[in-house]
Amino acid sequence: xxxxxxxxxxxxxxxxxxxxxxxxxxxxxxxxxxxxxxxxxxxxxxxxxxxxxxxxxxxxxxxxxxxxxxxxxxxxxxxxxxxxxxxxxxxxxxxxxxxxxxxxxxxxxxxxxxxxxxxxxxxxxxxxxxxxxxxxxxxxxxxxxxxxxxxxxxxxxxxxxxxxxxxxxxxxxxxxxxxxxxxxxxxxxxxxxxxxxxxxxxxxxxxxxxxxxxxxxxxxxxxxxxxxxxxxxxxxxxxxxxxxxxxxxxxxxxxxxxxxxxxxxxxxxxxxxxxxxxxxxxxxxxxxxxxxxxxxxxxxxxxxxxxxxxxxxxxxxxxxxxxxxxxxxxxxxxxxxxxxxxxxxxxxxxxxxxxxxxxxxxxxxxxxxxxxxxxxxxxxxxxxxxxxxxxxxxxxxxxxxxxxxxxxxxxxxxxxxxxxxxxxxxxxxxxxxxxxxxxxxxxxxxxxxxxxxxxxxxxxxxxxxxxxxxxxxxxxxxxxxxxxx
Length: 485
Description:
Number of helices: 24
Mean pLDDT: 85
Low-confidence stretches: 481-485
Oligomer: single chain
Strand order of the largest sheet: 1-2
Protein backbone atom coordinates (compact mmCIF):
# COMPACT_ATOMS: atom_id res chain seq x y z
CA UNK A 1 0.00 0.00 0.00
CA UNK A 2 1.46 3.37 -1.04
CA UNK A 3 1.83 6.16 1.57
CA UNK A 4 -1.01 8.19 0.08
CA UNK A 5 -3.42 5.27 0.43
CA UNK A 6 -4.82 4.59 3.89
CA UNK A 7 -5.93 1.36 5.47
CA UNK A 8 -9.70 1.42 6.10
CA UNK A 9 -11.08 1.37 9.61
CA UNK A 10 -13.67 -1.24 10.56
CA UNK A 11 -16.39 1.44 10.55
CA UNK A 12 -15.46 2.54 7.03
CA UNK A 13 -15.47 -1.07 5.84
CA UNK A 14 -18.91 -1.70 7.33
CA UNK A 15 -20.64 1.39 5.91
CA UNK A 16 -21.26 -0.06 2.38
CA UNK A 17 -22.40 -3.36 3.91
CA UNK A 18 -24.95 -1.61 6.12
CA UNK A 19 -26.19 0.43 3.15
CA UNK A 20 -26.51 -2.74 1.03
CA UNK A 21 -28.42 -4.62 3.72
CA UNK A 22 -30.77 -1.65 4.21
CA UNK A 23 -31.45 -1.33 0.49
CA UNK A 24 -31.98 -5.06 -0.12
CA UNK A 25 -34.22 -5.37 2.94
CA UNK A 26 -36.32 -2.42 1.78
CA UNK A 27 -36.63 -3.97 -1.68
CA UNK A 28 -37.86 -7.28 -0.27
CA UNK A 29 -40.32 -5.61 2.13
CA UNK A 30 -41.80 -3.30 -0.50
CA UNK A 31 -41.52 -5.37 -3.69
CA UNK A 32 -41.40 -8.97 -2.46
CA UNK A 33 -40.35 -11.47 -5.13
CA UNK A 34 -40.15 -8.67 -7.74
CA UNK A 35 -37.06 -7.30 -5.99
CA UNK A 36 -34.73 -9.32 -8.23
CA UNK A 37 -36.23 -7.81 -11.38
CA UNK A 38 -34.21 -4.61 -11.06
CA UNK A 39 -34.50 -3.19 -7.55
CA UNK A 40 -31.77 -5.40 -6.07
CA UNK A 41 -29.50 -4.57 -9.01
CA UNK A 42 -29.93 -0.86 -8.31
CA UNK A 43 -29.34 -1.52 -4.60
CA UNK A 44 -26.04 -3.23 -5.40
CA UNK A 45 -24.97 -0.33 -7.63
CA UNK A 46 -25.84 2.27 -4.98
CA UNK A 47 -23.96 0.30 -2.32
CA UNK A 48 -21.02 0.07 -4.75
CA UNK A 49 -21.18 3.87 -5.15
CA UNK A 50 -20.98 4.26 -1.36
CA UNK A 51 -17.98 1.90 -1.29
CA UNK A 52 -16.44 3.97 -4.07
CA UNK A 53 -16.78 7.15 -2.02
CA UNK A 54 -15.08 5.43 0.92
CA UNK A 55 -12.31 4.25 -1.44
CA UNK A 56 -11.70 7.77 -2.75
CA UNK A 57 -11.50 9.14 0.80
CA UNK A 58 -8.84 6.52 1.51
CA UNK A 59 -6.72 7.81 -1.34
CA UNK A 60 -7.69 5.46 -4.17
CA UNK A 61 -8.31 6.81 -7.67
CA UNK A 62 -11.14 6.04 -10.05
CA UNK A 63 -8.60 4.09 -12.10
CA UNK A 64 -7.87 1.82 -9.12
CA UNK A 65 -11.59 1.27 -8.51
CA UNK A 66 -12.42 0.66 -12.17
CA UNK A 67 -9.57 -1.83 -12.56
CA UNK A 68 -10.84 -3.82 -9.57
CA UNK A 69 -14.43 -3.74 -10.88
CA UNK A 70 -13.38 -5.01 -14.31
CA UNK A 71 -11.27 -7.75 -12.73
CA UNK A 72 -14.26 -8.80 -10.63
CA UNK A 73 -16.61 -8.81 -13.64
CA UNK A 74 -14.07 -10.74 -15.69
CA UNK A 75 -13.92 -13.45 -13.02
CA UNK A 76 -17.66 -14.05 -13.53
CA UNK A 77 -17.61 -13.82 -17.33
CA UNK A 78 -17.36 -17.59 -17.75
CA UNK A 79 -20.39 -18.07 -15.53
CA UNK A 80 -22.41 -15.55 -17.52
CA UNK A 81 -21.53 -17.22 -20.84
CA UNK A 82 -22.53 -20.60 -19.41
CA UNK A 83 -25.83 -19.06 -18.31
CA UNK A 84 -26.56 -18.01 -21.89
CA UNK A 85 -25.81 -21.53 -23.09
CA UNK A 86 -28.03 -23.03 -20.39
CA UNK A 87 -30.87 -20.80 -21.56
CA UNK A 88 -30.43 -22.05 -25.12
CA UNK A 89 -30.18 -25.65 -23.99
CA UNK A 90 -33.40 -25.44 -21.98
CA UNK A 91 -35.17 -24.04 -25.05
CA UNK A 92 -34.07 -26.66 -27.57
CA UNK A 93 -34.45 -29.52 -25.10
CA UNK A 94 -38.06 -28.47 -24.61
CA UNK A 95 -38.68 -28.07 -28.36
CA UNK A 96 -37.14 -31.48 -29.11
CA UNK A 97 -39.20 -33.25 -26.45
CA UNK A 98 -36.17 -34.21 -24.33
CA UNK A 99 -37.38 -32.52 -21.14
CA UNK A 100 -41.02 -33.63 -21.68
CA UNK A 101 -39.75 -37.21 -22.20
CA UNK A 102 -37.76 -37.00 -18.97
CA UNK A 103 -40.85 -35.75 -17.17
CA UNK A 104 -43.02 -38.47 -18.73
CA UNK A 105 -40.79 -41.41 -17.87
CA UNK A 106 -39.95 -39.90 -14.51
CA UNK A 107 -43.64 -39.81 -13.64
CA UNK A 108 -43.92 -43.45 -14.73
CA UNK A 109 -41.05 -44.52 -12.47
CA UNK A 110 -41.21 -42.20 -9.45
CA UNK A 111 -43.98 -41.68 -6.93
CA UNK A 112 -44.50 -38.70 -4.60
CA UNK A 113 -43.46 -40.65 -1.50
CA UNK A 114 -39.86 -41.21 -2.59
CA UNK A 115 -39.54 -38.45 -5.18
CA UNK A 116 -37.55 -35.89 -3.13
CA UNK A 117 -35.24 -38.62 -1.83
CA UNK A 118 -34.69 -40.02 -5.33
CA UNK A 119 -34.25 -36.58 -6.93
CA UNK A 120 -31.53 -35.68 -4.43
CA UNK A 121 -29.67 -38.96 -5.07
CA UNK A 122 -30.00 -38.66 -8.86
CA UNK A 123 -28.56 -35.14 -8.88
CA UNK A 124 -25.76 -36.21 -6.51
CA UNK A 125 -24.73 -39.05 -8.84
CA UNK A 126 -24.78 -36.91 -11.99
CA UNK A 127 -22.93 -34.05 -10.31
CA UNK A 128 -20.33 -36.44 -8.87
CA UNK A 129 -19.71 -37.85 -12.35
CA UNK A 130 -19.56 -34.48 -14.12
CA UNK A 131 -18.08 -32.29 -11.38
CA UNK A 132 -20.61 -29.59 -12.20
CA UNK A 133 -23.62 -28.62 -10.10
CA UNK A 134 -24.58 -26.06 -12.75
CA UNK A 135 -24.76 -28.62 -15.55
CA UNK A 136 -26.64 -31.05 -13.31
CA UNK A 137 -29.27 -28.47 -12.39
CA UNK A 138 -29.58 -27.26 -16.00
CA UNK A 139 -30.20 -30.76 -17.38
CA UNK A 140 -31.61 -33.41 -15.06
CA UNK A 141 -32.58 -30.72 -12.54
CA UNK A 142 -34.99 -29.00 -14.92
CA UNK A 143 -36.63 -32.33 -15.76
CA UNK A 144 -36.94 -33.30 -12.09
CA UNK A 145 -38.51 -29.94 -11.28
CA UNK A 146 -41.13 -30.60 -13.94
CA UNK A 147 -41.81 -34.10 -12.59
CA UNK A 148 -42.13 -32.83 -9.04
CA UNK A 149 -44.51 -30.04 -10.00
CA UNK A 150 -46.61 -32.53 -11.96
CA UNK A 151 -46.75 -34.66 -8.81
CA UNK A 152 -48.14 -31.66 -6.95
CA UNK A 153 -45.07 -30.91 -4.82
CA UNK A 154 -44.04 -27.40 -3.78
CA UNK A 155 -41.46 -26.04 -6.23
CA UNK A 156 -39.24 -24.69 -3.46
CA UNK A 157 -38.94 -28.13 -1.85
CA UNK A 158 -38.24 -29.79 -5.21
CA UNK A 159 -35.54 -27.24 -6.02
CA UNK A 160 -34.10 -27.73 -2.54
CA UNK A 161 -33.70 -31.47 -3.17
CA UNK A 162 -32.18 -30.85 -6.61
CA UNK A 163 -29.68 -28.26 -5.38
CA UNK A 164 -28.76 -30.34 -2.31
CA UNK A 165 -27.86 -33.35 -4.43
CA UNK A 166 -26.08 -31.28 -7.08
CA UNK A 167 -23.90 -29.46 -4.56
CA UNK A 168 -23.03 -32.67 -2.71
CA UNK A 169 -21.74 -34.19 -5.96
CA UNK A 170 -19.96 -30.99 -6.97
CA UNK A 171 -18.29 -30.78 -3.55
CA UNK A 172 -17.02 -34.39 -3.62
CA UNK A 173 -16.08 -34.71 -7.30
CA UNK A 174 -12.38 -34.51 -8.27
CA UNK A 175 -13.57 -32.91 -11.53
CA UNK A 176 -15.08 -29.90 -9.75
CA UNK A 177 -13.30 -26.56 -9.99
CA UNK A 178 -14.07 -25.59 -6.38
CA UNK A 179 -12.92 -28.99 -5.15
CA UNK A 180 -9.58 -28.28 -6.82
CA UNK A 181 -9.46 -24.62 -5.73
CA UNK A 182 -9.92 -25.22 -1.98
CA UNK A 183 -6.89 -27.51 -1.46
CA UNK A 184 -4.80 -25.26 -3.70
CA UNK A 185 -5.58 -22.27 -1.48
CA UNK A 186 -4.98 -24.22 1.73
CA UNK A 187 -1.81 -26.00 0.62
CA UNK A 188 -2.86 -29.67 0.47
CA UNK A 189 -3.49 -32.15 -2.36
CA UNK A 190 -6.80 -32.95 -4.02
CA UNK A 191 -7.42 -36.49 -2.80
CA UNK A 192 -6.34 -35.82 0.78
CA UNK A 193 -8.87 -32.98 0.71
CA UNK A 194 -11.67 -35.17 -0.70
CA UNK A 195 -11.03 -38.02 1.75
CA UNK A 196 -11.07 -35.63 4.70
CA UNK A 197 -14.32 -34.02 3.53
CA UNK A 198 -16.06 -37.40 3.89
CA UNK A 199 -16.02 -36.91 7.69
CA UNK A 200 -18.37 -33.91 7.49
CA UNK A 201 -20.04 -34.33 4.10
CA UNK A 202 -21.43 -37.86 4.48
CA UNK A 203 -23.27 -37.02 7.75
CA UNK A 204 -24.61 -33.84 6.11
CA UNK A 205 -26.01 -35.63 3.04
CA UNK A 206 -27.22 -38.48 5.25
CA UNK A 207 -29.31 -36.12 7.36
CA UNK A 208 -30.56 -34.42 4.20
CA UNK A 209 -31.76 -37.69 2.66
CA UNK A 210 -33.48 -38.71 5.90
CA UNK A 211 -35.35 -35.38 5.97
CA UNK A 212 -36.49 -35.76 2.35
CA UNK A 213 -37.53 -39.38 2.90
CA UNK A 214 -39.60 -38.48 5.97
CA UNK A 215 -41.06 -35.51 4.09
CA UNK A 216 -42.27 -37.87 1.36
CA UNK A 217 -43.99 -40.22 3.79
CA UNK A 218 -45.84 -37.52 5.74
CA UNK A 219 -47.11 -35.44 2.80
CA UNK A 220 -50.67 -35.80 1.51
CA UNK A 221 -50.63 -37.54 -1.91
CA UNK A 222 -54.34 -38.31 -2.24
CA UNK A 223 -54.88 -36.00 -5.22
CA UNK A 224 -51.68 -36.88 -7.05
CA UNK A 225 -52.77 -39.91 -9.13
CA UNK A 226 -55.46 -38.06 -11.08
CA UNK A 227 -53.15 -35.12 -11.71
CA UNK A 228 -50.33 -37.43 -12.86
CA UNK A 229 -52.57 -39.28 -15.31
CA UNK A 230 -53.64 -35.97 -16.81
CA UNK A 231 -50.04 -34.86 -17.23
CA UNK A 232 -49.04 -38.16 -18.86
CA UNK A 233 -51.92 -37.99 -21.36
CA UNK A 234 -51.15 -34.37 -22.24
CA UNK A 235 -47.46 -35.05 -22.85
CA UNK A 236 -48.28 -38.16 -24.90
CA UNK A 237 -50.64 -36.15 -27.10
CA UNK A 238 -48.23 -33.24 -27.54
CA UNK A 239 -44.86 -34.93 -28.21
CA UNK A 240 -43.29 -37.86 -30.01
CA UNK A 241 -41.71 -39.58 -27.01
CA UNK A 242 -39.00 -41.49 -28.85
CA UNK A 243 -36.34 -43.11 -26.58
CA UNK A 244 -33.69 -41.88 -29.03
CA UNK A 245 -34.18 -38.41 -27.55
CA UNK A 246 -32.09 -39.49 -24.56
CA UNK A 247 -29.03 -39.67 -26.80
CA UNK A 248 -28.63 -35.89 -26.43
CA UNK A 249 -28.36 -35.68 -22.60
CA UNK A 250 -26.18 -38.82 -22.67
CA UNK A 251 -23.81 -37.08 -25.08
CA UNK A 252 -23.61 -33.96 -22.89
CA UNK A 253 -22.88 -35.99 -19.75
CA UNK A 254 -20.27 -38.02 -21.64
CA UNK A 255 -18.51 -34.89 -22.91
CA UNK A 256 -18.31 -33.37 -19.44
CA UNK A 257 -17.11 -36.64 -17.87
CA UNK A 258 -14.39 -36.61 -20.54
CA UNK A 259 -13.44 -33.16 -19.21
CA UNK A 260 -14.69 -31.08 -22.12
CA UNK A 261 -15.25 -27.54 -20.77
CA UNK A 262 -18.87 -26.79 -19.87
CA UNK A 263 -19.36 -24.03 -22.46
CA UNK A 264 -18.68 -26.08 -25.64
CA UNK A 265 -20.41 -29.13 -24.11
CA UNK A 266 -23.59 -27.12 -23.48
CA UNK A 267 -23.38 -25.54 -26.94
CA UNK A 268 -23.21 -29.01 -28.51
CA UNK A 269 -26.16 -30.09 -26.36
CA UNK A 270 -28.17 -27.05 -27.45
CA UNK A 271 -27.50 -27.62 -31.16
CA UNK A 272 -28.22 -31.35 -30.92
CA UNK A 273 -31.48 -30.47 -29.19
CA UNK A 274 -32.41 -28.28 -32.16
CA UNK A 275 -31.54 -31.04 -34.66
CA UNK A 276 -33.57 -33.63 -32.76
CA UNK A 277 -36.50 -31.20 -32.59
CA UNK A 278 -36.55 -30.91 -36.39
CA UNK A 279 -36.38 -34.71 -36.75
CA UNK A 280 -38.80 -35.87 -34.06
CA UNK A 281 -41.21 -32.98 -33.30
CA UNK A 282 -42.51 -31.48 -36.60
CA UNK A 283 -45.89 -30.58 -35.08
CA UNK A 284 -44.30 -28.75 -32.14
CA UNK A 285 -41.85 -27.01 -34.50
CA UNK A 286 -44.72 -25.74 -36.66
CA UNK A 287 -46.66 -24.60 -33.58
CA UNK A 288 -43.71 -22.57 -32.25
CA UNK A 289 -42.85 -21.05 -35.63
CA UNK A 290 -46.43 -20.45 -36.75
CA UNK A 291 -45.38 -21.38 -40.30
CA UNK A 292 -47.14 -24.02 -42.41
CA UNK A 293 -46.15 -25.40 -45.83
CA UNK A 294 -42.40 -24.72 -45.62
CA UNK A 295 -40.79 -27.00 -43.06
CA UNK A 296 -37.28 -25.73 -43.71
CA UNK A 297 -38.27 -22.17 -42.85
CA UNK A 298 -40.43 -23.38 -39.97
CA UNK A 299 -37.55 -25.44 -38.52
CA UNK A 300 -35.08 -22.57 -38.71
CA UNK A 301 -37.54 -20.13 -37.10
CA UNK A 302 -38.56 -22.49 -34.28
CA UNK A 303 -35.02 -23.53 -33.39
CA UNK A 304 -33.79 -19.93 -33.38
CA UNK A 305 -36.67 -18.92 -31.12
CA UNK A 306 -35.92 -21.81 -28.77
CA UNK A 307 -32.25 -20.80 -28.63
CA UNK A 308 -32.90 -17.12 -28.02
CA UNK A 309 -36.31 -16.31 -26.54
CA UNK A 310 -39.01 -17.72 -24.30
CA UNK A 311 -41.21 -20.37 -25.95
CA UNK A 312 -44.35 -22.15 -24.73
CA UNK A 313 -45.73 -25.40 -26.07
CA UNK A 314 -49.51 -24.95 -26.06
CA UNK A 315 -51.58 -27.85 -24.72
CA UNK A 316 -55.18 -28.38 -23.57
CA UNK A 317 -53.95 -28.31 -19.95
CA UNK A 318 -52.92 -24.84 -18.73
CA UNK A 319 -50.78 -26.26 -15.92
CA UNK A 320 -48.79 -28.32 -18.44
CA UNK A 321 -48.53 -25.36 -20.81
CA UNK A 322 -46.97 -23.32 -17.99
CA UNK A 323 -44.65 -26.24 -17.24
CA UNK A 324 -43.50 -26.62 -20.85
CA UNK A 325 -41.65 -23.32 -21.09
CA UNK A 326 -38.18 -22.79 -22.51
CA UNK A 327 -36.43 -19.56 -21.60
CA UNK A 328 -33.71 -19.20 -24.23
CA UNK A 329 -30.79 -16.82 -23.90
CA UNK A 330 -33.07 -13.84 -23.32
CA UNK A 331 -34.57 -15.55 -20.27
CA UNK A 332 -31.16 -15.43 -18.59
CA UNK A 333 -30.47 -11.73 -19.09
CA UNK A 334 -32.05 -10.61 -15.82
CA UNK A 335 -29.87 -13.08 -13.92
CA UNK A 336 -26.78 -11.86 -15.78
CA UNK A 337 -27.74 -8.28 -14.89
CA UNK A 338 -27.87 -9.28 -11.22
CA UNK A 339 -24.47 -11.01 -11.43
CA UNK A 340 -22.91 -7.98 -13.16
CA UNK A 341 -24.03 -5.55 -10.48
CA UNK A 342 -23.03 -7.96 -7.70
CA UNK A 343 -19.53 -8.27 -9.15
CA UNK A 344 -19.28 -4.48 -9.44
CA UNK A 345 -20.07 -4.18 -5.73
CA UNK A 346 -17.59 -6.94 -4.86
CA UNK A 347 -14.91 -5.32 -7.02
CA UNK A 348 -15.24 -1.92 -5.38
CA UNK A 349 -15.20 -3.48 -1.91
CA UNK A 350 -12.05 -5.40 -2.84
CA UNK A 351 -10.29 -2.41 -4.44
CA UNK A 352 -9.29 -0.70 -1.20
CA UNK A 353 -9.33 -3.69 1.15
CA UNK A 354 -12.75 -3.17 2.74
CA UNK A 355 -13.56 -6.89 2.62
CA UNK A 356 -10.14 -7.84 3.92
CA UNK A 357 -10.47 -5.40 6.82
CA UNK A 358 -13.71 -7.00 8.01
CA UNK A 359 -12.26 -10.50 7.69
CA UNK A 360 -9.20 -9.45 9.71
CA UNK A 361 -11.46 -8.43 12.56
CA UNK A 362 -13.11 -11.84 12.56
CA UNK A 363 -9.77 -13.65 12.97
CA UNK A 364 -9.07 -11.76 16.19
CA UNK A 365 -11.81 -13.72 17.98
CA UNK A 366 -10.59 -17.17 16.90
CA UNK A 367 -8.74 -18.84 19.78
CA UNK A 368 -9.88 -22.48 20.06
CA UNK A 369 -10.19 -25.04 17.24
CA UNK A 370 -13.93 -24.55 17.18
CA UNK A 371 -13.77 -20.77 17.09
CA UNK A 372 -11.11 -20.82 14.37
CA UNK A 373 -13.19 -23.09 12.13
CA UNK A 374 -16.34 -21.10 12.96
CA UNK A 375 -14.52 -17.86 12.06
CA UNK A 376 -13.37 -19.36 8.77
CA UNK A 377 -16.89 -20.54 7.95
CA UNK A 378 -18.36 -17.15 8.85
CA UNK A 379 -15.78 -15.41 6.66
CA UNK A 380 -16.66 -17.66 3.70
CA UNK A 381 -20.36 -16.89 4.13
CA UNK A 382 -19.53 -13.21 4.47
CA UNK A 383 -17.65 -13.22 1.16
CA UNK A 384 -20.47 -15.10 -0.54
CA UNK A 385 -22.84 -12.34 0.57
CA UNK A 386 -20.58 -9.36 -0.13
CA UNK A 387 -18.24 -10.44 -2.96
CA UNK A 388 -21.10 -12.40 -4.58
CA UNK A 389 -18.86 -15.15 -5.89
CA UNK A 390 -18.03 -18.59 -4.49
CA UNK A 391 -14.50 -18.51 -5.87
CA UNK A 392 -13.70 -15.38 -3.87
CA UNK A 393 -15.44 -16.97 -0.87
CA UNK A 394 -12.89 -19.80 -1.11
CA UNK A 395 -9.79 -18.04 -2.40
CA UNK A 396 -9.70 -14.96 -0.14
CA UNK A 397 -10.37 -16.73 3.20
CA UNK A 398 -8.00 -19.48 2.05
CA UNK A 399 -5.18 -16.97 1.63
CA UNK A 400 -6.10 -15.16 4.84
CA UNK A 401 -6.29 -18.19 7.16
CA UNK A 402 -3.54 -20.44 5.73
CA UNK A 403 -0.77 -19.06 7.95
CA UNK A 404 -3.01 -18.99 11.02
CA UNK A 405 -3.90 -22.69 10.67
CA UNK A 406 -0.25 -23.61 10.10
CA UNK A 407 0.99 -21.52 13.04
CA UNK A 408 -1.57 -23.15 15.34
CA UNK A 409 -0.47 -26.64 14.30
CA UNK A 410 -3.37 -27.74 12.07
CA UNK A 411 -2.94 -29.65 8.84
CA UNK A 412 -4.00 -27.72 5.71
CA UNK A 413 -6.83 -30.15 4.90
CA UNK A 414 -8.73 -28.81 7.92
CA UNK A 415 -8.75 -25.40 6.27
CA UNK A 416 -9.54 -26.74 2.79
CA UNK A 417 -12.46 -28.78 4.15
CA UNK A 418 -13.84 -25.79 6.02
CA UNK A 419 -13.61 -23.64 2.87
CA UNK A 420 -15.74 -26.11 0.94
CA UNK A 421 -18.15 -26.90 3.78
CA UNK A 422 -19.00 -23.21 4.06
CA UNK A 423 -17.85 -21.39 0.91
CA UNK A 424 -19.00 -23.74 -1.86
CA UNK A 425 -22.38 -24.76 -0.48
CA UNK A 426 -23.66 -21.43 0.89
CA UNK A 427 -23.06 -19.56 -2.38
CA UNK A 428 -26.29 -20.98 -3.78
CA UNK A 429 -28.30 -19.55 -0.86
CA UNK A 430 -27.52 -15.89 -1.68
CA UNK A 431 -29.86 -14.38 -4.32
CA UNK A 432 -27.26 -12.00 -5.78
CA UNK A 433 -24.35 -14.45 -5.65
CA UNK A 434 -23.40 -15.88 -9.06
CA UNK A 435 -24.50 -19.34 -7.89
CA UNK A 436 -27.76 -18.30 -6.23
CA UNK A 437 -28.73 -16.10 -9.15
CA UNK A 438 -27.84 -18.79 -11.68
CA UNK A 439 -29.75 -21.65 -10.07
CA UNK A 440 -32.78 -19.42 -9.50
CA UNK A 441 -32.63 -18.32 -13.14
CA UNK A 442 -32.19 -21.84 -14.51
CA UNK A 443 -34.92 -23.45 -12.41
CA UNK A 444 -37.25 -20.47 -12.45
CA UNK A 445 -37.56 -20.72 -8.66
CA UNK A 446 -36.54 -17.76 -6.50
CA UNK A 447 -33.50 -18.31 -4.30
CA UNK A 448 -35.46 -17.45 -1.16
CA UNK A 449 -38.14 -19.96 -2.20
CA UNK A 450 -35.75 -22.93 -2.30
CA UNK A 451 -33.12 -21.84 0.26
CA UNK A 452 -35.04 -23.04 3.38
CA UNK A 453 -35.27 -26.54 1.83
CA UNK A 454 -31.69 -26.85 0.59
CA UNK A 455 -30.89 -28.90 3.67
CA UNK A 456 -27.45 -30.15 2.60
CA UNK A 457 -26.21 -26.60 2.05
CA UNK A 458 -27.67 -25.46 5.37
CA UNK A 459 -26.35 -28.40 7.41
CA UNK A 460 -22.79 -28.50 5.99
CA UNK A 461 -21.38 -25.33 7.65
CA UNK A 462 -22.88 -26.30 11.01
CA UNK A 463 -21.54 -29.84 10.70
CA UNK A 464 -17.97 -28.67 10.14
CA UNK A 465 -18.17 -26.19 13.06
CA UNK A 466 -19.79 -28.78 15.36
CA UNK A 467 -17.08 -31.35 14.70
CA UNK A 468 -14.40 -28.71 15.33
CA UNK A 469 -15.90 -27.79 18.71
CA UNK A 470 -16.15 -31.50 19.57
CA UNK A 471 -12.52 -31.88 18.46
CA UNK A 472 -13.61 -34.83 16.30
CA UNK A 473 -10.99 -36.05 13.80
CA UNK A 474 -9.14 -32.74 13.77
CA UNK A 475 -5.84 -33.30 12.02
CA UNK A 476 -2.74 -31.70 13.50
CA UNK A 477 0.73 -31.37 12.07
CA UNK A 478 2.31 -33.39 14.90
CA UNK A 479 -0.06 -36.35 14.37
CA UNK A 480 1.73 -39.59 13.56
CA UNK A 481 -0.70 -40.43 10.75
CA UNK A 482 -3.97 -39.09 9.33
CA UNK A 483 -5.80 -42.16 10.70
CA UNK A 484 -4.95 -41.11 14.24
CA UNK A 485 -6.31 -37.59 13.73
